[in-house]
Amino acid sequence: xxxxxxxxxxxxxxxxxxxxxxxxxxxxxxxxxxxxxxxxxxxxxxxxxxxxxxxxxxxxxxxxxxxxxxxxxxxxxxxxxxxxxxxxxxxxxxxxxxxxxxxxxxxxxxxxxxxxxxxxxxxxxxxxxxxxxxxxxxxxxxxxxxxxxxxxxxxxxxxxxxxxxxxxxxxxxxxxxxxxxxxxxxxxxxxxxxxxxxxxxxxxxxxxxxxxxxxxxxxxxxxxxxxxxxxxxxxxxxxxxxxxxxxxxxxxxxxxxxxxxxxxxxxxxxxxxxxxxxxxxxxxxxxxxxxxxxxxxxxxxxxxxxxxxxxxxxxxxxxxxxxxxxxxxxxxxxxxxxxxxxxxxxxxxxxxxxxxxxxxxxxxxxxxxxxxxxxxxxxxxxxxxxxxxxxxxxxxxxxxxxxxxxxxxxxxxxxxxxxxxxxxxxxxxxxxxxxxxxxxxxxxxxxxxxxxxxxxxxxxxxxxxxxxxxxxxxxxxxxxxxxxxxxxxxxxxxxxxxxxxxxxxxxxxxxxxxxxxxxxxxxxxxxxxxxxxxxxxxxxxxxxxxxxxxxxxxxxxxxxxxxxxxxxxxxxxxxxxxxxxxxxxxxxxxxxxxxxxxxxxxxxxxxxxxxxxxxxxxxxxxxxxxxxxxxxxxxxxxxxxxxxxxxxxxxxxxxxxxxx
Length: 660
Hints:
The chain is of the alpha+beta class and about 650 residues long.
């Protein structure tokens, strides 16, 4: 998490005789901030800001003596952040701050937050945040958490003005007494131009703070100035909010659900229009299609053409359908510059005469980056599916919600059901639990599609690089599973677990296979109950492949003895699936063996588990435009996958050493 400090105006309000002294802070107005530690200006996305009640302290000190008070009202309307609360501090330091406030000193507040998720907006790109539009380069703090608020003598932002009202005196003039006793809150808000009955709870709480301050102030000029500044901001905010809601209702006419969501979530008019357009397109075309009204060509046609060039025609037809494939046929043989030109036509952009400018313009459209990213992603997933993965035959697949250590539970058998006699009571069963730990890690690589590749019509990134990255992801997972299996943590496969046998006769042959099958079928839980496991997968290194195929695929076996009238059929034919993993005998892996072999029951019994973050079993590809990195002129890709592996239930598999 990255720390973030915001400087804001701090108003210390006067106390009433029967109420504690209060403060008000306009913490953030939704604009750009110059923040230490960030390369570019920062915009905090208020829609992603988690703000709970926090303490207000002096100079970032977290001591009792430095504690001024605590916020009790937080107003986040998606465009600005306002805080208000009560003064509770009793220390001499706090009293000194109050005394200086009464003497006219203007304090400022420093708002501390932690940035948990940020997005870099490249130069020239526009983003809508907090009801405003910003042009990159900027950093958008998409998810952040308010941590603390401090009072400072001088803040980093010299433009903020803080008005500190004086403490209520013991007596006031008769005119002032008349004003404070005769004007109600409803009358006061009406005088300021607000309808008290129509106020939101947040706005009402904020105005109540100002009303209390003005009603009890002994310095009307200072208090009036503070109130005027606060009301000006509130009016601007409410005006902008009414304007936003009006535009949303007009744009989303006929889409009440979108309108309600847009108003509730603080969407801008542009964001609402995008959702309405997508909803309208879904009635006719898939949501990721960008269509040209003139040519009828869409981003899907570009994606299909790129996949055809990469040699994934079948996958393209499966993804887009026969109609799109037929409509895009004229593009299948197009060069990459021609596809760039088509992207400009789709988006209705002018086509520059200079080829370099034309290519750069194409990458600034929506269609070309969408087509490149979409086709590369589909090629990646298809190539990943085609890559060998022996673990899928014997490992159970799990999903992890995060990168923390996950605890898997192996519930043991808790006894057979008891016969229930007439009028009898059902007995309580019992269940023991055994656990195992596992977690996922991130595996990643990046590569670039240079501008020269496009000019040279070099599509190798789609024909070679992306498929290679997919195979690399598959190999990484295969290696992790083999490493985990061979490491045999805590003697997972051991005689103590009744799932391991060794000796000169344990090499892969009919008799040792019979032993493994018998061991698996007779496997019991901790309470002595049979688990009814059946053999499903025979896992071997390449050195044993010919022996294994002969054992489980031959129709008959040759017998040396004659005259015994025994059948010659192969009793092990097709009794289990054969899985060959070359890493089992690779000297690069600790614990490798060319003679050891494994017999697994069904993968759902979870002898081995493979886990993926959020259940994403395929790698993810993300793409970035030409202006992502000012040092290179390239379209960049990064591929990553989050996975892990662990040994789970020792009862669900048998290992043979294959030697003495």
